[in-house]
């Protein structure tokens, strides 16, 4: 694999019923920023595509973009978004810390999670750092907001 600029190989695993299971998918790390179309493994040509990880969520404050080891926030329940207790014992109604929606903070249907996933994909596909991408995203959003009328008017229905 070294001849194909592969410097590391890691298998993707999943957890089912408390057991860690291997999948058929591998994460290859290359010595070069440009990915090849395919790699040859045991005489088989395998297609290569960029690996887009899930957004990084802190297991202490439940927010995105950092981990528990560097968190300065307070311990927050991932189920109800209340500060001061663990989600394992929580029976309260679900509420998201990030978007205030009626789902847990780890829900993959959360608009904030979906946005973070999209930003991560853009970062990897365009080879841009996360801070630079954040600046570009905010700039594009501000530009779009300036184009929108401040007080939109809507036609009144006929009487």
From TrEMBL:
Domain of life, per UniProt, equals Eukaryota
UniProt signal peptide: none
Q: Which residues form a coiled coil?
A: none
Q: Which GO terms describe its molecular function?
A: nucleic acid binding; RNA-directed DNA polymerase activity; zinc ion binding
Tell me the ranges covered by the CCHC-type domain, including all copies: 57-73, 76-92
Q: Alphabetically list the UniProt keywords.
A: Nucleotidyltransferase, RNA-directed DNA polymerase, Transferase
Checking InterPro entries in the record gives: Znf_CCHC, Znf_CCHC_sf
Q: Can you tell me where the transmembrane regions are?
A: none
Q: What is this protein called?
A: RNA-directed DNA polymerase from mobile element jockey
Question: What gene is this protein a product of?
Answer: X975_26616
């Amino acid at each position: 694999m070294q001849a194909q600029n592969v410097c590391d190989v890691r298998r993707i695993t999943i957890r089912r019923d408390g057991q860690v299971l291997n999948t058929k998918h591998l994460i290859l790390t290359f010595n070069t920023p440009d990915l090849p179309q395919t790699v040859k493994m045991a005489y088989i040509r395998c297609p290569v595509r960029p690996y887009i990880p899930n957004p990084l969520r802190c297991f202490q404050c439940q927010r995105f973009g950092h981990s528990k080891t560097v968190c300065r926030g307070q311990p927050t329940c991932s189920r109800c978004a209340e500060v001061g207790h663990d989600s394992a014992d929580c029976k309260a109604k679900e509420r998201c810390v990030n978007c205030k929606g009626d789902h847990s903070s780890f829900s993959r249907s959360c608009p904030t999670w979906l946005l973070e996933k999209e930003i991560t994909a853009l970062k990897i596909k365009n080879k841009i750092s996360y801070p630079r991408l954040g600046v570009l995203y905010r700039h594009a959003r501000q530009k779009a907001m300036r184009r929108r009328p401040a007080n939109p008017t809507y036609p009144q229905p006929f009487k």
